[in-house]
C-alpha cells in the first residue's frame, strides 16, 4: 500500500509542475491577467491552430492524471485506518 501511495504522490508532484507549465504556455485570450503580463498583444508569434490544439489535448491528459492522483490519495487516506 505504501508503494501505491508513494507512486501517487510522485505522480501528483510531477503532474502539478507540468500542468502549471502547460497552462502558462497557452495563448492569452485577452482580458484578465494575461493582458497584465503582455499576453494580450496579438502578433504573428502566437502558436498555430494545430499546435494550440495539441497543447490543449496534452493539458487535458495531464489534468486527468493530476485528478486521478488526487482522488487516489484521498481514497487511500480515508480507508487507511480501516
- Helix fraction, binned, reads over 70%
Describe the sheet with the most strands. none
Assembly state (oligomeric): single chain
Overall geometry comes to elongated
Mean pLDDT over the full residue set: 84
Number of domains: 1
Individual helix count: 3
**Strand portion:** under 5%
* Structural classification: mainly alpha
E-strand count: 0
Task: Write up what this structure looks like.
- There is one protein chain.
- By secondary structure, the chain is mainly alpha-helical.
- It has one domain.
- Helices cover 72% and strands 0% of the residues.
- Helix 1 runs antiparallel to helix 3.
- The longest helix is centred in the C-terminal third of the chain and has 31 residues.
- The chain is elongated, with a radius of gyration of 17 Å.
- It starts with a helix and ends with a helix.
SSE layout:
Layout: H1 2-25, H2 33-36, H3 49-79
Short description:
With 82 residues, the protein is an all-alpha fold. The chain has one domain. The chain is built from 3 helices and no strands.
Search tags:
single chain; 82 residues; mainly alpha; 3 helices; 72% helix; 0% strand
Amino acid at each position: 500500500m505504501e508503494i501505491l501511495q508513494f507512486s501517487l504522490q510522485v505522480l501528483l508532484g510531477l503532474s502539478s509542475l507540468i500542468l502549471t507549465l502547460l497552462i502558462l504556455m497557452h495563448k492569452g485570450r485577452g482580458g484578465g491577467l494575461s493582458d497584465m503580463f503582455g499576453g494580450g498583444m496579438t502578433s504573428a508569434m502566437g502558436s498555430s491552430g494545430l499546435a494550440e490544439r495539441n497543447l490543449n489535448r496534452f493539458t487535458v491528459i495531464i489534468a486527468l492524471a493530476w485528478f486521478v492522483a488526487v482522488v487516489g490519495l484521498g481514497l487511500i487516506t480515508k480507508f487507511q485506518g480501516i
